[in-house]
Amino acid sequence: MAAARALWRPGLPVPRGCGRLWAQPGRAAAAVAPPPPSGASPGARSPFDRRLKRKQKNWAALRPRPAECEYLRDEVGSGVADRVLDIPRTFPLALDLGSGRGYIARHLNQEVIEKLVQVDIAENVFKSTSESEIPTVSVVADEECLPFKENTFDLVVSSLSLHWVNDLPKAFREIHQVLKPDGVFIGAMFGGDTLYELRCSLQLAELEREGGFSPHVSPFVAVSDLGHLLSRAGFNTLTVDTDEIQVNYPGLFEVMEDLQGMGESNCSWNRKPLLHRDTMLAAAAIYQEMYGNSDGSVPATFQIFYMIGWKFHESQAKPAQRGSATVSLGDLAKIDKLLHQK
C-alpha cells in the first residue's frame, strides 16, 4: 500500500496554531433518501441514486466559492494529467468523462490535446469551468450511457467520477468502444480504504447510541478487481497503481461539510435518511479519540486508484510466443561472467 501523503489547500486561516486545517466551520445537513423512481431497481446491481448524485453535484457547483473544496479534485486531476503527459504523442480528440469544472484540462495544453469534449451529469458544472487553452465542447450526459459513436476518441480521461457509476463493467466497455484503435484510457477513482476513519467513527457511534448502524460512506471497488474489469472490457497493456492522500480537518463536521462541497455526499439507495444529533456528536468524539492528531486536527484518508488501458491495434508491441526465449532464467546468476566473456 502506498504511503499516505499530506495535502493542503492554501489561503484559508489556520485556527489555534494547528497545521493544515482548511474547512470552514459548519454542519452538513442530513439528506433524506427518496424512494426509488419507477423502473429503478436499487440493490447490489444498482446501489446509487443517480438523480440524487446529479442534484448534489449541481448544488456544489453553484456554491458562492466552489473552488474552496476543489483541492482534492485538483490534486487527482493533476495526477491524471501527469500520466497523459508521460505519453509522447498529441491527441487530436479527447474525452473527459465526469469532467466537473475541468480539473484535468487545467493542467494540460493544446500541444497535448487539440480538442477536448467534456462530459458531466450535472449541467451547472459548465457554468464556471476553469480556463484552459484547449478548445472544449461541453456535453451533459450520464457516464453510464455515452452518446458517442464507436472509434471516436484518441484519448479518454476520467477523474473521481466512475466510483458513482452503478454498472462499472458496462462503463468500461463503453469507454473502450468510443476509443479509436491504439487509443488510451487514463482514469482515477476512489479506492476501498477511502474515508475509513469517518466510516468507523459513524458505525461505532450508531452501535453505541442506536444499537445498530447503516452505511454512510458509499461502497468502493477493490484494486484486486480493477485490472480484471478493465481486461474484461477489452483493454490491454494495463497499469494500475495506488496513492493515498491524507487531509487534516478541524473535526468530523468539517470533513462532512467539505465532502458535501465536493459533491461527494453519499447517494446510495440504502443510506440512512437521518443522522441524529447525539449520534453525530458521539461520532465526532470517537473520531477525535481514535484518529486525532497531536495538534487537535483529525485526518481523512483518500485512497486513489490510477488506471491506464489501451485499445488493441496491430502496431502495438506483442508479447513473444511461449517457448521463444533464448536465455534461461537460471542463467541470470551467471550474467556477470557472461558479460566479462564478451
Automatic annotation (TrEMBL):
InterPro entries: Malonyl-ACP_OMT (IPR050602), Methyltransf_11 (IPR013216), SAM-dependent_MTases_sf (IPR029063). GO terms for molecular function: oxidoreductase activity; S-adenosylmethionine-dependent methyltransferase activity. Transmembrane segments: none annotated. Residues 95-186 form the Methyltransferase type domain. The keyword Methyltransferase applies. CDD domains: AdoMet_MTases. GO terms for biological process: methylation; mitochondrial respiratory chain complex I assembly. It holds the Pfam family Methyltransf_11. Its main location: mitochondrion. Keywords: Methyltransferase, Mitochondrion, Oxidoreductase, Transferase, Transit peptide. It comes from the Eukaryota. It is found in: Mitochondrion. One of its GO terms (cellular component) is mitochondrion. The keyword Translocase does not apply. Residues 28-50 are annotated as: Disordered. Belongs to the methyltransferase superfamily. This is Arginine-hydroxylase NDUFAF5, mitochondrial. It comes from Gallus gallus (Chicken).
